[in-house]
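Sequence in, structure out.
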Amino acid sequence: MPRGKKALVAGGAGFIGSHLCEYLLAKGYQVLVIDNLITGVRKNIEPLFSLGVDFIERDIEDDSIILAVGEGPIDEIYNLASPASPIDFTRIPLKILSTASEGHRNLLELAKLKKARILFASTSEVYGDPLEHPQSEDYFGNVNPVGERSCYDEAKRFGETLTMAYHKKEGVETRIVRIFNTYGPRMRLNDGRIIPNFFLQALMREPLTIYGEGHQTRSFCYVADLVDGIYRLMQSAEISPINLGNPIEKSVLEMAEIINEMTENICPHRFLDLPENDPRQRRPDLSKAKRVLGWGPSTSLEEGLHLTFKYFKGVFEETKS
């Protein structure tokens, strides 16, 4: 177990980032969080301040980021800084693009200066609406560069390219993780993604909104499993991208029925038109993650959803009081 290592987590006040901070603390790391709080929430990491987590409220696009970090050593940089919800794609598309370009480049420069290893959090969205199923890391994707989702898809594709360029030309130790649908406590209740949407609507005793006929599929990975995979990738020698997610595939309609049953919501579903370029199938090929990292998810969907529902129910009741 590493002792005395220092990790910088960009986007550490966000959903996945805050769980990663907890995980690293348990491993004995010193942790520095950088977050501009556009989508992150200070409350997510405030309990960690007394455990030694330092926090800098700043945008990674800020050119003064290296100065703000200071002169001390940093061993690992985890870049999870990016708005990632569908509601953000139309709300702040330019911010999403610049975060993965100017922002990520600043962190790569910091990694070069500190001789730190850096991990870029990419996404299954780089595969677009895939024509290959399940999606392996060798698949180049089917992405619309000018569609509603393109600001996020192309930002992450560019971020991967930038990461590899710094590795090849500047000698920076880099890692790339392609994150598939992840859920768990600390997601925003108005996140816009399937599980938060369904829980919020069910708690409000409203119809669950289903796009198309609900036959499109997703696979959902619990956040604790994902964070363990991210850490394993950082410690590995693997340079090329690795998928992390859960291979158990469910249709949107199946997920709606599961959540309605869990919440005892009896409202009928509401069906709307399928959004542009909404992926019809999404499931990771985890062969590489199993072979290289010895990793696979261990949390069942039932267990993960109950933990997530407990959190959402608490947040929902807070907002009503």
